[in-house]
Amino acid sequence: MPEPLVPSTAKTADTQAKAHWLQTHTVLRSLPRPLIEAIAPHLTEVSFAANRRLILEDTDPGAIHILKSGQLESYRSRPSSTATTTLLEPGEVLHLQALLLESQASNTIISLTDCVIWQLNKTQFKTLLQTHPALKPALSQLLSDTLENLSEQLTYEQNKQQALRPYLVTRVKRGVVGSSRYATRLRQNIRDITRSKPNLDTDKTAHPPRRQPVLIFGEPGLNKDNLAALIHFGSSNKRELMIQINCETLRAQDLFGRSKNQPGLLDWLGSGTLLLNNLQDLEESLKPAIFQLIKTGEYQPTSRDNTKPSTLKQSPAWILIVAETIIPELTQCNTARIKVPPLRVRKADIEAQVNYFAQLLCRQQGLCKRQIDDVALRRLQSYDFPGNLTELENMVARAVSQSGNRDRLTEEVFWPEENAKRRFRFNLLEGYPKLRTFLLSPWWPDRINYGFTLWFYPIVVAVLLWGPQTRDQNIALN
Fold it and tell me: Which of 6, 101, 160, 186 is the most buried (most CB within 10 A)?
């Protein structure tokens, strides 16, 4: 008679330890304890070095593999697209379906680190199925439940992607261009924010750790939303999704949801990054709810009958805010702040900005490289750019399109033809800022008219009428 697979003597401590680990770390936990104890003695421990292939896709796996420690990577080659990789952590059970259905391995498995793997070879597995008749239906039910869970997760992910797709930010358009002290300081501010960590002082059982909200403010046209993307993709939160919402068109039911059956963007986003763009345009009725979300991370789903639900929800999302000015209500929300300097104070960066925009456009259009002319550069540096980077980018795009085959961007392609006298006209108010300040002060014209001219003019007239009529004796005549 064949030797029994399960020892008749008392189970060893090693077998008990393996069974306990399988029950606490793997999907086999749903199996009855006797079946787990039947499998445990036949697991063989194998050490597997890093950067080695465990199994090749579409081949016979030969055994069930259980990852005890280390990390594996699973992928399947795709001829028409990049292979999607999955990171496998300890407790992963591999090739159970392949051996049970007598099929081939669906994915290639490689080791990322040194691993310890438990193996149950095919011969022993088939013997166990014969020795323990309850094992096969239990494993079949386990696979069925696993596939059902995977199907539910896939459906959830599809619904999530569909809900978030219109708002997704998938990449950074550009970095901070320039070497001026303003550009250097801006890069350092962004770097400091990206290195920040979630607040771990909160009670994790009541609220998940939250990152400090960030306010990015400055004049229009400074690409502040791109700076927010720089912060997200440079931080440890970069693996999470980032969405951007325009506050001018924001609706409460879209962000907060209505009920469990109608989740909002915050429910789908989870611990991702939420960018509230142009907060200054937010509708007044939404301000209390939005500022509560920024301050505490709490929000209330809306209801159809305008009655608020009794329970608050907690969002772990990282909130980034873009505004043109500091919003007074944000002073109570403990936000980190980044002030973006306007282009008119970064004149030293204009040449680098023009070259960057020109090279980007030339590369996209297949044109030869363009360089800016010195005269055109000086003209640009004398301009204040009320539209900031957006205006400069549009000017460079127009200049590149009008430059033809020339490799120099001259003054004529940036501005239309102008009269020479008008082109070089000097503006006193821009050349002498103190004169502008004086003309805007109370001295002009009220204090001069009523504080000086009102009494000085009658005195001059009186001296002219009744004083001596010779220049050497009457100062008014002189």
Answer: 186
